[in-house]
Write a structure and sequence with these properties.
The chain has two domains: 157 residues, Rossmann fold, CATH 3.40.50.720; 270 residues, Dihydrodipicolinate Reductase, domain 2, CATH 3.30.360.10. The chain is α/β, with parallel strands linked by helices. The strands form two sheets. Strands 7, 8, 9, 10, 11, 12, 13, 14, 15, 16, 17 and 18 form a twelve-stranded mixed β-sheet that branches. It is built from 15 helices and 18 strands. The protein is globular, with a radius of gyration of 23 Å. The longest helix has 19 residues. Bound molecules: nicotinamide-adenine-dinucleotide. The site of nicotinamide-adenine-dinucleotide (NAD) has 28 residues, from helix 2 and helix 8. InterPro entries: Gfo/Idh/MocA-like_OxRdtase_N (IPR000683), Gfo/Idh/MocA_oxidrdct_glycsds (IPR050463), Gfo/Idh/MocA_OxRdtase_bact_C (IPR043906), NAD(P)-bd_dom_sf (IPR036291), TAT_signal (IPR006311). This is Dehydrogenase. Keywords: Signal.
Length: 482
Amino acid sequence: MISISRRQFLAAASATAVTSMTSPSFAASANDELRVVVIGVNSIGNTHLNGFPKVPGVKVVGACDVDSAALGKRAEEFEKKFGYTLKKYDDLRRVYDDPNVDAVVLAVPNHWHGLGTVWGCQAGKDVYTEKPCSHNIWEAGQMEKAAKKYDRIVQIGIQRRSFTHLQEFFKEVQDGVLGKVMHVKGLYLTRRDSIGRPTSPPKPLPTVNHDLWCGPAPTKLERAKYHYDWHWFWDYGNAELGNNGPHILDLCRWSIGAEEFPTSVSSIGGRYAWDDNGQTPNTHILRYEYATAPITFEIRDLPTETGKKDTCKYMGLSYGIVVEGEDATYVGFDTGKVIDKSGKTIREISGNTGTDGGRQLHRENFAKAVRSRKTSDLNCSVKTGHLSTALCHLGNISHRVGKPIGLNSLSEQVAQQPLLTDAAGRMLEHLSANGVDLPSASVQMGETLAINPKTETFVSSEQANQLLRREYRAPYVVPENV
Ligand SMILES: NC(=O)c1ccc[n+]([C@@H]2O[C@H](COP(=O)([O-])OP(=O)(O)OC[C@H]3O[C@@H](n4cnc5c(N)ncnc54)[C@H](O)[C@@H]3O)[C@@H](O)[C@H]2O)c1
């Protein structure tokens, strides 16, 4: 049970608005039940509804969603499975007002991660925020400040950070087990479909509070499918780079212990083969410069060739990383292997990945840190999540301030950069196999942008610096002073 004094204190808190005072931290006793509400339950939030009750000492007490259909469905399923009724909230501010809630899981679209986390911290809740850490670089800093100021535990949902075998192996990589690392390559080679081009203006689902769904972002609606497809519009999502990129780029950065921003970023990308109104690239190559080793990242959302269902592979991987050392190479994702120069496997890297793609271990880690009240116990603090997510934002900014060039001049443009020459060659072959007419198509040649890792800003592009943050739609504004 929670201590009496804490309950009394919490009961006194305002029930009408997001409280701007902190409540006492979750009691340290291992016997106290941690009361969790999942916010956003359509898709990944549902895995949290099912996973958090299995964490010892955690009770899921409620669910919140702006879509009454998703909320009703998930609450009913939960009751059938776990045998008790969840409290339902249609506005996250009411969750934050509720003194009977200790922690929240933010499984809402990206444009809500910053404000949802800051409000949660201000209201005295601990927060598990899904990846990407933030929708833009500036608001991640505000999240970090809020967590510190209100002494909150904030975990970012980049769950492979909770794999002990990777924690141990990447330490070895940093200590030189592969020899000097020359290059780290990230890969996210998947297959998606066109989202279509609505012929008449789409309408929000009748069950959704669209104003609250949009929150900090504009309310215009350009997608036919309401949920999930927001990833492909800059106002709400962050492209495939900010969707699955945080997982992959986190592994890249973690493997070499790169604990700050890179010194430069470049990008090459476009949206091909689909006749739709999505805004973000479905084919993207990134390069990040670090003193330790450069990181490149290849993203493809198109299949191996037109009409096929399979996805591309590189060294046997569709998703994952290749760490090229002078002596040996690591190839892996959740688990992996070390190969020698002849390609022979000399070591397997594996361990406990838990259930639900690693999320269960990550939930357990969150609960542990909430009890200990130590951010240092978290496997993915805001700082860690921010550094990995920032790589996605930096790449998207390079893309957005870039200029279109003819695809057939791409090879010439990257001729002086061997790592990009290889990747661009693969990209051209792949696009051709997907029916793209190379001589007539164009590609967005992102600007190569120098970055100051200390200030986390671009050195000389005002246009790029403008994209470090967004305009917030009142009253959904991430405050300057958290
Ligand atoms: N860690 C992982 O492996 C992983 C996997 C998938 C998704 N995610 C992340 O989880 C988040 C959600 O993804 P999804 O695929 O479930 O998206 P989704 O669009 O399917 O579902 C989002 C839900 O949030 C609700 N919502 C929107 N604004 C809300 C608000 N203000 N208050 C309450 N509910 C609100 C929506 O109505 C919807 O039900 C994204 O940020 C995504 O990047 C993480």
